[in-house]
Amino acid sequence: MIDGRLARGERARHAALDAAVVLATESGLEGLSFNQLAERLGVSKSGLFAHWRTKEELQLAAATHAEARFTDVVVRPALQEPRGIRRLWALHEHRLADIASGDLPGGCFFCLAQFEFVARPGVVHERLAAALERWHVLLERLITEAVELGELHPATDPQQLSFELNAHGTAAVYESRLLAATKVYGHARTAALVRLRSLSPTPQLLPEA
User: Fold this and answer.
1) What is the DSSP letter of 82?
2) Is the pLDDT of residue 5 over 80?
C-alpha cells in the first residue's frame, strides 16, 4: 500500500511538471504559479505544495523536467544515428521537429526561459545557464567527433559551429511563432545544412540543401 501511494504520488508529480513545462512556454516561467498549475490540472493548490514549497522550487523542478524531456525527445533519438556529421545533423533535425510539433505552445522551454531570466540573477538563472552550457558541450562533442572521423574539416572550430547551430534553432523558436512557420523551419534547416555541407569533405553523407 505504501509503494502504491508513492507510485501515485510520483505519477501526480510527473503530470504536474509536464503541465508546468507547457504553461511556462505560454505565460513565462516567472508567470508560472501554483494557482495556474492547479487550475490546469484540476487539483487543489494544497496538493501541489506537497511537492514544492515555493515558486522557486517549482521553477527549478520545471527546468529539470524540461531538460529530461528534451533529452528523451531530441537527444536520444539523434544519438541513434552513426557517429559523425550525420549524428550532428540529426540533432538539429530533431530539435526543429520538436519546436514544430506543437507539444510546447511556445516552441522551446529553454529558449523562452533563458530570454526571460537573462537579466535576473539567482538560482533559476544559474540553472538555465547550466542547461545551455550542457547543450553546447554536447554539440561541441559531436562536432569534435565528426572532425576526428574526417567528416568535418580539421580547422573546424567546435565552439563557433556550436554557436551557429544553436542560433539557427533559437531563431526558429521565436520567428515561427510570429511569421509563417513552414518558411521559418525551412530557413533554419537550410542554413544549418548549407553550413555543414560547406565544412565537410563528405557532404554526400548529408541531404541536399
Assistant:
1) P
2) no
